[in-house]
Amino acid sequence: MPSRPLERRVVEALPELLDAHLVFGVDVGGKSEVWHVHRGACDRRLDEGEVINLGEVASLGGDALASLPAPGRVPKLPVMDDVSVVLDLARLTAGGQVGGSGLVGRDTSVLTLASTHHTGSNEGLGTQSVSGAVSDVREHVVGDLRIFIYELPEIRGASRVVASINPVVDAPGGKVALDARTNVSYRLRQLKAAVSWLRGEFKDTLTLVLGPAGFFGYESRVPVWTEDADTHVVEARGEIVSTTVGRVLFYNIVPDEIPFGAVDRPMSKKALGELIDRCYRTAGPKSTVLFADALMQLGFSMAAEAGISICMDDMVIPESKPRILDEATRQVRETETQYNEGLITPREKYNKVVDIWTKVTAEISDSMIKGISTETYDAGNGKTETQPSFNSIFMMVDSGARGSPTQVRQLAGMRGLMARPSGEIIETPITANFREGLSVLQYFISTHGARKGLADTALKTANSGYLTRRLVDVVQDTIITAHDCGTSEGMEVTSLIEGGEIIEHLGERVLGRVGSEDVLDPYSDEVLAGRNMALDEPTIDRIVQAGVERVKIRSVLSCEMRWGVCSLCYGRDLARGSMVNIGEAVGVIAAQSIGEPGTQLTMRTFHIGGAASSVAAQSYLELRTSGTIRYGDTLLTVTDRDGRTIVTSRNGEITVADAKNRERERYGLPYGAEILVKDGQKVAAKMRVAQWDPFNLPILVSMSGKARFEDLEEGRSMKEELDVTGLSRMVVTDFKDTDLKPRIVVYDEAKKPLARYFLPVSAYVMSKDGSDVMVGDVLAKIPRETTKTKDITGGLPRVAELFEARKPKEVAIITEIDGTVGFGKDTKGKRRIIVTPEVGEAQEYLIPKGKNITVNEGDYVRKGEALMDGAANPHDILKIKGEGALARYLVDEVQEVYRLQGVKINDKHIEVIVRQMLRRVKIREVGDTDFLVDEVVEKHRFDHVNRQIVAMGGIPSKAEPLLLGITKASLSTDSFLSAASFQETTRVLTEAAIKGSVDQLRGCKENVIMGRLIPAGTGFAAYQKLGMSFKDESEAQLADLNAS
After folding, report:
1. CATH code for position 418
2. Are the C-beta atoms of 710 and 744 separated by less than 8 Å?
């Protein structure tokens, strides 16, 4: 085999594999050579016995001799002081010869890799001395193939670091957090890709790629062999799998209890975190610490050899950028023209321009990420193949080691839109990126965002700290006080689905919780998990595989303990992986788990205008999986004159079920959407099943007849407007006359009104007065801009708003009963909506004029449905839907804010806070009790007094649940010491003195103030009563001596 082409191919490979200096030996045609590769160039090739100066290679100083012998001979290692050298030996033997031993029936080449680590013997630096070099060459015969394995030398005289066997555990997510992950994941991913490249590049001549027989003093447990040139067949603890050498190397350091399947995948930061967590659960803390230590060594070793750096050329600007920018500029000019001609308002212009640039930024960003994520290479025979990219920046981001796609977008895409300090988005985007460089104007615009960022950070730190303080104060007395409270109540949990996508699977949500009732297999009725049984990993696997869709679990919200909560209602201690111990201060843990990531949340409010929101911009529904379509119970449809199926319900849903009738996807369909599939129809993935107008909300005819305009008078409540295409349309205007109620009424042939449709301001009238209309026809369209142009609070302010139970500014009025919608006489500029139930009294609701009413006359609404646009009021949810619905709403809303920032918090922490917010009730009827009407009392006291009255044959009192914000809940606690040390000290102490309050010192705070042992951990009362035992007499005598 000619040596020069091979040399060139190896050299071309090396910048991708190890962008650093490398010395290695190659045996071509029986002759040993030592090659020195420096930054992708082969500086020289040395014959056996020649001297190579490693000072040139890695600035290590001193000379070194390196050579590669035939199998059986020991190579001479460099001898240097205080220097660490890694010598990689690679053997490629041509013509079917391996060290003089022939291969039967083969005419291929064999590449053998072995690594020897040599370190200077300076013990003061805590280094490891390697005595000897390759100690042995073992020969393996597999079929007709002989394999020579170089054993690593023994490591002698190594100084040993004793590792702690208690890994740090990240309580909010319950995952073991060992910081060995970040740099390691990057290098391991690169190692895997490197071997993949070698395998593809040398597949014509390469029979075997063999990792070092030992690694970091571990003996290899993974023999490797191959049956053909393309795959590596590995025997991993009795299991035969096909994999890459990188994963074999990595598996060498994994504890015995972990199967090979756990590492046979790309090991990103997240995957490494899961692996360490699994190791902790299955192999125990000691093995986990040793594994994490080895992982750190492997990671740093590989990262050092990799020599990864950031290069200007790594920031690849997409070729499509100029074209995309030209198209966006044209669209912006069109919008400017429409504004100048008076076709659109300044607000609409602003929304459209922001929308255009938002889309363009995303498009360029996607194009750029796509460009750097893959690369093509010549596979020979005139073919090119694509593989994951070796771009340094992409590898860092993709592995999770450092950076995010947003940062890469600014480096090589475009910076995009900036915000003013007020939070308003500046219309002019920064089209340049940092590689191209910013103009003076662009730099000036950037300073807005930079200054806002610095101001935000300062505010955020203070706000986050204050939120944590309030949270800790409200739950500081929540301690595990018993094993089981005996409740049969619970909370039903399903997978969390948003926009049809499963955000969090059922298994993740119930892991570590306790079942409130038996979990049954939906097909065989076999009990998968019994009542009061902890749902651990194996149980969760069984539940998920059986296709269970909902599980009822115990929750602190339904715990019946008077003080604190019980162990079963709380579940697993996330810091230890076992059931929580009695005496654990779970309240403080919950508060800190929610407050600590607060600094990662943004302070800004998100502006949504026009189609700038992804929800509004989406105009169709595409499935991700194949299956059978099922219409939901709440989905109402009509067939229009063209035979199309149109949605007429406000909260209709469709689901996709698989072959076993298990729900795979769930989607909400907007009012007015056209459904393209039938109920029960088989559908394929990527199929479009529904479409709708993303910019307008239609008002549809529900009963056929003749349309008549009422109170629609041109010049008073309606005006003619030219649209973009030059066509005239009638638009409902903002009318001063309060007596006018613009509406379209549909009459039958007997001139009896069948249905009335009220039109909000800005609605476009699509039908003519007196025209015949059919079911499904569009009477009018409401532009979505009018309903969507508002700022929604996000980040830290949103979390504080939820926990303080504040009433939103634009609150939606929701119906308290099921019934049919009707419209009554307007009063004082407000619309009157009457909901009439089938049995019982009708309820009236007054809605301000100009607000968009989301229901029409004759619609059937269910309890808790909104009658108009607006945000939900948590107090209304509690009053109408109850505590369970409110708790679900608060947990989901808080989780959504954190999820947007990529922060994972366990649901139970939020539930602990919500429990404290719901611990009081307001008395409505006193009965035979001593309570007063409107008195606010603790729920447990209310229940206790009522039980006593009922036992005596009296009439119990009635109350309604009360939702208190965390500040109010902290101040209304039974402990005046705790409340006084929180806020409003003078008022709290004055009231306590007037009432003659007694503080029972049940919480942590009040005990700290009084200088007592806190009632948590070993200070918990039950533990104080325990006696002491001694191992032998000497210890007992010592104890007596100490006592005397």
Report:
1. 1.10.132.30
2. yes
**What single DSSP character describes residue 827?**
B
CA distance linking residue 747 with residue 752, whole number of Å: 5
Residue 596 is assigned to a structural domain of this protein: no
Give the CA diameter of the chain. 111
Task: Give the Cα-Cα-Cα angle 11, 17, 23 (nearest 5 degrees).
Answer: 55
Cβ atoms of residues 230 and 218 within 8 Å: no
For the chain, give the percent of residues with pLDDT over 90: 12
Residues 297 and 377 in one domain: no
Residue 499, φ and ψ in degrees, nearest 5: 60, 35
Q: Rounded mean pLDDT of 74-91?
A: 31
Whether 623 and 497 map to the same domain: the answer is: no
Domain contains 388: yes
User: Distance between CA atoms of 636 and 653, rounded to whole angstroms?
Assistant: 9
Total number of domains constituting the chain: 7
Q: Which residues contact 422 (CB under 8 A, 6 or more apart)?
A: none
Task: Pick the closest to residue 276 from 577, 622, 38, 17 (CA basis).
Answer: 577
Residue 750 CA to residue 754 CA, distance in Å, equals: 10
**What confidence tens digit (pLDDT) does each residue in 853-905 have?**
777 777 778 888 888 877 888 998 898 888 888 998 999 889 888 887 778 89
* Angstrom distance (rounded) from CA 310 to CA 313: 9
Q: What is the SS3 string spanning 888-915?
A: HHHHHHHHHHHHHCCCCCCHHHHHHHHH
Contact 225, 145 (CB under 8 A): yes
Range of the domain at 40: 1-159
Whether 411 is in a domain gets the answer: yes
The token duo for 823 is 């419209």
Residue with the two structure tokens 């189609």: 611
Q: Is the pLDDT of residue 939 over 50?
A: yes
Residue 839's Cβ-count burial label (10 Å; 0-12, 13-18, 19+) is exposed
End-to-end Cα distance, the chain: 89
d(C-alpha 247, C-alpha 713), whole Å: 76
Helix, strand or coil, per DSSP, at residue 798: helix
Q: How confident is the model at residue 739 (pLDDT cuts 50, 70, 90)?
A: low
84 plus 135 within the same structural domain: yes
Better-predicted residue by pLDDT, 200 or 420: 420
Count how many Cα atoms sit within 13 Å of the Cα of residue 608 in the half-sphere of its side chain. 16
pLDDT digits (tens, 9 = 90+) for 610-656: 333 333 356 778 787 788 888 877 777 888 778 888 888 777 788 88
Contact of 869 with 787, CB cutoff 8 Å: yes
Are 289 and 222 in the same domain? yes
pLDDT tens string 236-275: 665 556 666 677 778 888 888 888 888 888 888 888 988 9
Strand duo 51-52 + 64-65: pairing: antiparallel
Cα–Cα dist 626/683, whole Å: 5
Name the residue among 508, 594, 567 with its Cα closest to residue 803: 594
Q: CB-based contacts of 1007: which residues, under 8 Å, 6+ apart?
A: 1001, 1013, 1014, 1015
Q: Are residues 176 and 293 in the same domain?
A: yes
Closest CA to 970 of 940, 1006, 996: 1006
Cα gap 360→18, rounded to integer Å:
37
Reduced to 3 states, what is the DSSP secondary structure of residue 593? helix
Among 438, 455, 471, identify where a domain stops.
438
pTM strictly above 0.85: no
For residue 44, the cross-strand partners are 36
CATH of the domain at 668: 2.40.50.100
Q: How confident is the model at residue 222 (pLDDT cuts 50, 70, 90)?
A: very low
Q: Does residue 954 share a domain with residue 851?
A: no
Kindly state whether residues 50 and 146 are assigned to the same domain.
yes
The residue among 799 and 1023 whose pLDDT is bigger is 799
Compute the half-sphere exposure of residue 185: CA atoms within 13 Å on the CB side of its CA. 25
For residue 542, tell me if it sits in a domain.
Answer: yes
Lowest-confidence region among 449-458, 547-556, 1015-1024: 449-458
